[in-house]
Amino acid sequence: MNILLVGSNHKTAPLEVRERLAPKEEETPHPLITVKNLPFIREVFFLSTCNRIEVLSVVEEAETAEREIKDWLRNRGGFSLHQAERYLYTYTGEEAIRHLFRVAASLDSLIVGEPQILGQVKDAYRQATEMGTTGTILNRALHSSFRTAKRVRTETGLANHAVSVSYAAVELAKKVFGKLEKKSALLVGAGEMAELAARHLIKNGLSRLILTNRTLSRAQELAVVFGARAIPFQELTSVLTEVDIVISSTGASNYVITTNMITDALRRRRNRLILIIDIAVPRDADPEIGKMDNVYLFDIDDLQDIADENMNMRQVEAQKAELIVEEETVRFMSWLKSLETVPTIIDLREKVEHIMAQEMERAGAWLRSLSETDRKEVAILMQSVIKKILHDPITVLKEGHTEGGEIDFVAALRRFFKLDEKPIPPPRERKDDALS
Q1: Could you report the per-residue pLDDT of 414-430, keeping only the tens digit for each?
Q2: Model pTM?
Q3: Pairing of strands 52-59, 41-48
Q4: Could you give the residue numbers annotated as active site?
């Protein structure tokens, strides 16, 4: 078994490529199922966020599986083999696990330390488990990534004054308009990003906030929280006339803000400047809007300058976080190594022999009453019992003929016999119990 990660992110591919790779609304079959059905794929986890598309898998034939996954992504994104070398990256084994842990801990994010990514990883994992595409190895890897992220947040200052893509969007608005006290804003979408953007806008003194969402009730819920106004999605065109700032973060597959809508809005607002910040992937606003006069259009990749400032401030804490990632990577790889047959056979024998030695120690007074010949016979008997008990599981381990796969069998055996727990310390030797 090999661990393989193939992906594309904000460092390797432009936004127009990433949005082609992103899953579509109600896509059938789901990417998890599609990848799981590729040759030699045993387990799979699929992560799609604003800044990345990644496929983490456990595979049998690494080269073939990598080629199949890359071809799937390449066809999905509509780019050439040459472009694939530039847009896609591949990690295997320990490097794949290290990358997963860095992603979960927000060390590989556009905004380092942003808190949303862990929730996105957890949501993707929940979906994978519901679809039955993960197994022993990826289940352990994902739970280890959650522990890594938690350690980074509690043991370093990386999350202090936490920022996010939504925070960066508001900072960008401040750079364009200066103070926001006399400005109005429209949030398109009512998810976590919209909620965070609302908090930052209100905190910076925004005069008026309007919310819209395809599900009006969700927009109304947020409106109550922030003292804002909620409008039906159908009124989006008309409200563009009123606002100075638009921050859009829906999950729509098509543009929700079109050139015709902005053309009409500009006419009604007498060409008064409007700022549109599109933090959705795929994009919510038609890129052609950016060519119009009196319109500032920014997408998620345009937040890089703010991301760079953030990285400089957090460099020291990020270094501490990298050490935690390294510790957890070594820890996981040690566990993975234990799933090999030989280490498990050794650990199993040592566990049983340790138990026998303890019991022999406790029975020291009784054994002392036996002759030396009898004591040797008892020891031989105990060894014989151990061999007979261990014969069948060790035989199955060596042959690897298990219905669910040898990895699953080894993991179950280690769990049943608690082989990954710290060994019980040997009993303190007492002179009156010692065998002689």
Answers
A1: 778 887 775 544 433 33
A2: 0.73
A3: antiparallel
A4: 50
